Each structure stands twice: as structure tokens, then as C-alpha cells.
Amino acid sequence: MEGSRITVMTLIKQSGSLVTILAGKFIFKEKNIAYKLICAGIIIIGIVIGVL
């Protein structure tokens, strides 16, 4: 189905943002990483629930 392909690509793109957040922590010593990870996690959980 065409709609499921878009959902999977969104999930992959959002998972890539997790890598970006963690890289920002280790490379640039950013703060509020927990808040950013929680926000990204909520979005990913919402996408997974939408797929189910």
C-alpha cells in the first residue's frame, strides 16, 4: 500500500533525528538532551501506534 510506505519513511526519518540529537550531545555538548529525546520518543511511539 502506498500510504504505508510514507509511514515507514517517516519513522526512519524520525529515528535519524535520534542519532542527530545524540551526536549533538557528544560532539557539541548540548544541554536538555533528555527533553529532546523524550519529545522524539513520543513522536516515534505515535507513529508506531498509527501503523498498528
Automatic annotation (TrEMBL):
InterPro entries: EmrE-like
Keyword Transmembrane helix tagged: yes
Transmembrane intervals: 33-51
Keyword terms: Membrane, Transmembrane, Transmembrane helix
Lineage top rank: taxon: Bacteria
The protein's name: Putative membrane protein
